[in-house]
Amino acid sequence: MDSFQFDGIPEFTLAAQLGSFTAAALQLGVTSSAVGKSVTRLEKRLGIKLLHRTTRKLSLTSEGEAYLASCLQVMDELSDIESRLSSGSAEPRGRLRIDLPAAFGRRHIAPMLISLARKYSQLDLTLTFGERTVDMISDGIDLAVRIGDLKDDPELVARRLGDQHLVICAAPDYLNQCPPILRKSDLLERDCIIGWRKGLRMAWLMKNSKGGTEEQEVRVRHEFGDGEMMLRATLEGCGLCQLPTWLVSEHLRSGALVTVLDNYAGATMPIHVIWPRTRYIQPKVRIVVDALLNMAEEKAALFGVSDTLRLS
């Protein structure tokens, strides 16, 4: 590979992160004009515009955002390899960007990651929480935990951690105020609480007579973009909600919530850890993947993994 193929990349990544050719030039020990010309040559070679230039600031184009994420990932990998070769150690180091499901991530995954970071002093974490599907490559995400079916993406690697089991439940006060709920169609006449996401259908996953799952439309009263708030509203007697067992188990045991339609409920959603496919898995990624797989086996009830199931 010719060395010129790397020309302009250090200047581009630094200018993009700092938002200024001048700031990048000060760190690189060159002139602002030299940085600008290097980036221009890089854009010409790639045939795309990477940066919007104004007299006040620089901003990335959509192509520039994707290219920057790829450059940073490659530079991180090179840094890790150099550190490993020089020290003879595969200890995780550097910043790891992880995207987690909101409620599940905050309650169960984040505490484990924080403990892991205390163990490895060179491991730095950036954690984000949300239910939306992110573009891991463009957004520069190193690792993500996802609940639900995954799209077939050759650029990503996925390992299954277990399953999330769903139940339909409500507070006794709410159930005492409405007729018994005996059929799936009754959900079209009751107050239902759903998770809000753009483009999400107003339906719940339920078992059918063949043992499979199908979507059942419901009458929506309230929508929340956060699982903890869905739980709070359900506990307050605002209606029925389909929630995972890891979120409601203590409230079911105490009687604060009661399940309904048990013959039809019980659908599951897979839980995966995913990361971008590369030839070399960085130690910081490998250590977190291994920790998540160990956690899934040690906390089988949380991940819906039976004693007979072992992750391969």
UniProtKB/TrEMBL annotation:
Keyword DNA-binding in annotation: yes
UniProt-listed CDD domains: PBP2_CrgA_like_6 (cd08475)
Coiled-coil boundaries: none
InterPro entries: LysR-type_TF_proteobact-type, LysR_HTH_N, LysR_subst-bd, WH-like_DNA-bd_sf, WH_DNA-bd_sf
Superkingdom assignment: Bacteria
Keywords: DNA-binding, Transcription, Transcription regulation
Any single Pfam family the record assigns to this protein: HTH_1
SUPFAM superfamilies in the record: Periplasmic binding protein-like II (SSF53850), Winged helix' DNA-binding domain (SSF46785)
Domain HTH lysR-type: 15-61
Keyword Magnesium among record annotations: no
GO MF entries: DNA binding; DNA-binding transcription factor activity
PANTHER family named among the record's database cross-references: HTH-TYPE TRANSCRIPTIONAL ACTIVATOR TTDR-RELATED (PTHR30537:SF5), HTH-TYPE TRANSCRIPTIONAL REGULATOR (PTHR30537)
Family that this chain belongs to: Belongs to the LysR transcriptional regulatory family.
Protein name as annotated: LysR family transcriptional regulator
